[in-house]
Amino acid sequence: MESVSRLGRGVWWLFIGIVVVWGLAALSLDLVGGRTVGSSSYDAVVVAGAGVRPGGVPSGTLIRRTRRAVELVTGGHGRRLALTGGVGDWPPAEAVVARQLALGWGVPPGSIVWEDRSTSTEENAREIRAVLGDARILVVTDRSHVVRCERVFRRYFREVDAVGVAPPLSARIYGALREVLAVSYYGVLGRL
After folding, report:
1. Neighbour count for residue 81 (Cβ, 10 Å)
2. CA-wise closest residue to 140 among 109, 110, 181, 98
3. 99-to-89, 92, 93, 127 alpha-carbon distances in Å
4. CATH topology of domain 32-188
5. Nearest partner of 65 among 19, 109, 102, judged by Cα
6. In tens digits, what is the pLDDT along the chain, a chain of 192 residues?
């Protein structure tokens, strides 16, 4: 009976250890993603794709990422705005919706390039590489996604930096915890 009790305590402590390590990894991803952009200038500021809601309404994530990228381009950090993302759960393509946002915020049409076929971070990088060539880029994504995004994009571009935007707290916590799994998965597959 006592050995069962010890086993139960051991499993409990293992569970606590996993939760603590997972939480620290999520916090680390979020903190790294909160770094600021220096004074560098890039060939393009890239918006990592994010969802579109029914009726072609941009998700809050897509709005935040696109707004930050527009600020960076208009602030002199990039010559072009590059938009990624195909059709997810609802049309139109994420890049098409982001383009409409950017145009509405005053970005000249000639400064915007896009790809509208990708459905993952890996595809975002591959498809926008076909549009930009080997450009020096700054990718805008969510804070917790910065590490994975930067590493994936570096497989396609020689010079890549990434910067994160902060979603509302509940989404930020969920995203960081989820991203620990995504980074682990990409790492196991050798895609980082």
Report:
1. 26
2. 98
3. 18, 11, 10, 16
4. Rossmann fold (3.40.50)
5. 102
6. 555 566 677 778 888 888 788 788 777 778 788 888 777 899 999 999 999 999 999 999 999 999 999 999 999 999 999 999 999 999 999 999 999 999 999 999 999 999 999 999 999 999 999 999 999 999 999 999 999 999 999 999 999 999 999 988 888 888 888 888 888 888 888 877
* CA–CA dist 137, 41 (Å, integer): 9
User: CA nearest 120: which of 89, 97, 86?
Assistant: 86
HSE, side-chain direction, 13 A CA sphere, residue 77 = 23
φ/ψ of 52, rounded to 5, equals -120, 140
Using an 8 Å Cβ cutoff, are 98 and 47 in contact? Answer: yes
Residues 145 and 32 sit within 8 Å (Cβ to Cβ): no
Say if residues 129 and 157 touch (Cβ distance below 8 Å): yes
- Which residues have C-beta within 8 Å of that of residue 125, sequence separation ≥ 6? 152, 153, 155, 156, 157
Q: What is the model's pTM?
A: 0.87
